[in-house]
């Protein structure tokens, strides 16, 4: 049980980082941490106590296999996360070109 | 099975369009425009054809790669999906026609169309998919494309808004992913229909409550309901006008409202708790955003706040859970996507000719831009709920439904905010289009032909939108969609019947 909780703690760490940090790069790192928390949690739903690898053969019984599906799903989610992170970093670079700073308290022309 | 072969086309056509435009658009001049219009038009026609097919054959299902659901990924067109497809693709076609002229002032038109069609394929995918994880993937395709589109101008404001939007949007997606992980752990299936069946067998425990909260946060962020709305008033005005129209008109509805309704009604099953949360959040968005909107002086920012307020109406209508409420909510969804994209296209036309979005600097533009002025008047009257226009009927239905369900407080707020909406659009009309023409705008001309064409089309739909309530049309279009939500978890039975055929 505690291992599931640790994943959510990791997620919460990322969330804290996004909400509290002022540096754009640190916010991006927060997103990545939160993403890892979610991915690890998803992987853990596949875990079976003393399960074996999910390779099917004729004589082996299908009991107590690790669920292979979440692994495939998390792979997809990681790729999506990569695309998002790359885009956000590209935006962050352009912001630095325009504003000359990574501090979000100095980047606030939009309000109201 | 023949009829259901059109389903994957809704994802394939925009993807192929995006690919071809990015590959060939630079080499052959004008090709990007041609491919864009052809894909937009064919999607629009196909979506109407899908409504017709649904009315003939019932639920259409397509198994991707011939793997039968619930093992493989299923794509499903039922009444609600067909309804949403028409809404999304109709607006998308008008926006493509509008961009033919409007996007000339940006340098990379090909890249714009590529991102646009990626976003469109993501939205269509969210609407037709019957698989929970597939929904997440399509949601991310649409979201990532929209982050890039908000930053399209790469000026200070655009980048700031895009960063804010990207961070908040990514958080929303992560909540959705966590919710899917919980739901998969609980039901051990990913097919939405199958999930619904398992949940009605196993009952809703604490895990489902957790999933409800996660989805409410995740899709609430995408739909910009009030506690989660902070990104929208920055992101929507910063994007180029056609994209603002797409984002406000259909993206927040396809990714937010549609996904929320589909999952809460057809998978988890709506309970009084969910219903009251939805109604409360809807009313809160309606009131808070309405009050914030009226003080804005930036044309597009005012429209963006008003979008949040109108989303509140939709959520209130759908959250009521009565047949009339859901009908009103969906009708308002359709109307809002038409008139809000019209209004954003109008603001784009004003920005195209005058180069400003500040309402205080405008004035009397209707003298020089008659088409923009007239369509702006129609759009504003429609969103404010003046009788012959479409917005009036949907708001009326929502308020009547709220009174029928004994929710008098919600009905009161809905009526009050309707008056506030009228006030805010009278302000827009007064400052932008009516009054005396300022000296510096003496030289401006009306916008080019394609922009006029697309705005007039949307304005005509606004005017005649009320006919959707006539018995014959209502039966094949709106009623089918609300029936699909009302049947709740019987969705599973319906889908699996479709698969076995």
Write the layout of secondary structure elements.
The complex is a heterodimer of chains A (112) and B (501).
Chain A: H1 2-20, H2 24-44, H3 69-99
Chain B: H1 9-24, H2 31-57, E1 60-63, E2 74-77, H3 79-102, H4 109-128, H5 132-150, H6 156-187, H7 192-202, H8 206-223, H9 232-238, H10 241-268, H11 272-294, H12 299-320, H13 323-354, H14 365-368, H15 370-384, H16 390-404, H17 408-433, H18 449-464, H19 471-476, H20 478-486, H21 491-500
Antiparallel strand pairs in B: 1-2
Written account of the structure:
The complex is a heterodimer of chains A (112) and B (501). Chain A has 112 residues and is mainly alpha-helical. Chain A has one domain: Orthogonal Bundle (Helix Hairpins). Helices cover 63% and strands 0% of the residues of chain A. In chain A, helix 1 runs antiparallel to helix 2 and helix 2 packs antiparallel against helix 3. Chain A is elongated, with a radius of gyration of 20 Å. With 501 residues, chain B is mostly helical. Helix content of chain B is 76%, strand content 2%. Chain B contains 21 helices and two strands. Chain B has a two-stranded antiparallel sheet. The mean pLDDT of chain B is 90. The chains are: A mainly alpha (112), B mainly alpha (501). At the A-B interface, helix 1, helix 2 and helix 3 of A face helix 5, helix 6 and helix 9 of B.
């Amino acid at each position: 049980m505690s291992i599931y909780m640790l994943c959510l703690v990791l997620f919460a760490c990322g969330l804290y980082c996004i909400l509290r940090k002022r540096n754009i790069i640190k916010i991006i790192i927060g997103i990545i941490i939160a993403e890892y928390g979610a991915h690890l949690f998803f992987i853990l739903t596949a875990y079976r106590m003393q399960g074996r690898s999910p390779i099917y053969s004729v004589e082996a019984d299908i009991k107590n296999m690790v669920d292979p599906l979440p692994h495939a799903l998390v792979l997809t989610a990681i790729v999506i996360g990569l695309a998002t992170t790359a885009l956000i970093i590209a935006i962050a670079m352009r912001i630095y070109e325009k504003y000359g700073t990574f501090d979000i308290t100095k980047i606030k022309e939009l309000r109201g | 099975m023949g009829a259901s072969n059109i389903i994957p086309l809704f994802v394939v056509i925009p993807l192929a369009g995006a690919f071809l435009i990015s590959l060939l658009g630079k080499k052959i001049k004008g090709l990007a425009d041609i491919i864009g219009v052809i894909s937009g038009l064919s999607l629009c026609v196909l979506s109407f054809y899908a409504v017709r097919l649904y009315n003939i054959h019932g639920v259409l299902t397509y198994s991707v790669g011939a793997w039968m659901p619930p093992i493989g990924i299923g794509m499903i067109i039922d009444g609600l999906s067909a309804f949403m497809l028409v809404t999304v693709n109709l607006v998308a076609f008008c926006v493509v026609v509008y961009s033919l002229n409007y996007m000339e002032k940006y340098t990379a038109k090909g890249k714009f169309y590529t991102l646009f069609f990626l976003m469109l394929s993501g939205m269509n995918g969210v609407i037709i998919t019957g698989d929970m994880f597939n929904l997440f993937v399509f949601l991310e395709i649409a979201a990532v494309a929209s982050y890039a589109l908000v930053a399209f101008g790469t000026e200070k404001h655009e980048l700031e808004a895009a960063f804010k939007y990207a961070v908040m949007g990514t958080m929303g997606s992560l909540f959705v992913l966590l919710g899917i992980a919980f739901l998969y752990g609980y039901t051990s299936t990913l097919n939405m229909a199958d999930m619904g069946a398992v949940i009605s067998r196993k009952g809703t425990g604490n895990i489902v409550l957790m999933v409800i909260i996660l989805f409410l946060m995740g899709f609430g962020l995408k739909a910009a309901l009030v506690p989660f709305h902070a990104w929208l008033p920055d992101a929507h005005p910063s994007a180029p006008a056609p994209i603002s129209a797409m984002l406000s008109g259909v993206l927040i509805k396809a990714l937010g409202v549609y996904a929320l309704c589909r999952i809460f009604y057809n998978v988890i099953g709506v309970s009084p708790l969910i219903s009251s949360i939805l109604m409360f959040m809807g009313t809160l968005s309606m009131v808070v955003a309405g009050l914030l909107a009226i003080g804005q002086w930036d044309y597009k920012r005012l429209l963006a706040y008003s979008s949040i307020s109108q989303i509140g109406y939709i959520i209130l209508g759908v959250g009521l859970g009565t047949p009339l409420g859901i009908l009103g909510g969906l009708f308002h969804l359709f109307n809002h996507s038409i008139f809000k994209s019209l209004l954003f296209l109008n603001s784009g036309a004003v920005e195209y000719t005058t180069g400003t979005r500040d309402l205080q600097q405008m004035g009397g533009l209707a003298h020089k831009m008659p088409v923009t002025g007239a369509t702006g008047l129609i759009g504003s009257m429609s969103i404010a709920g003046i009788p012959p226009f479409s917005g009036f009927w949907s708001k009326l239905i929502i308020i009547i439904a709220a009174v029928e369900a004994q929710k008098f407080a919600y009905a009161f707020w809905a009526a009050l905010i309707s008056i506030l909406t009228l006030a805010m659009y009278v302000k827009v009309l007064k400052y932008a289009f009516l009054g005396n023409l300022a000296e510096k705008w003496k030289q401006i001309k009306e916008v080019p032909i394609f922009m006029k064409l697309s705005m007039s089309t949307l304005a005509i739909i606004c005017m005649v939108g009320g006919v959707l309530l006539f018995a014959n049309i209502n039966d094949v279009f709106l009623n089918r969609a609300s029936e699909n939500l009302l049947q709740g978890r019987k969705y599973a039975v319906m889908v699996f019947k479709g698969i076995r055929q």
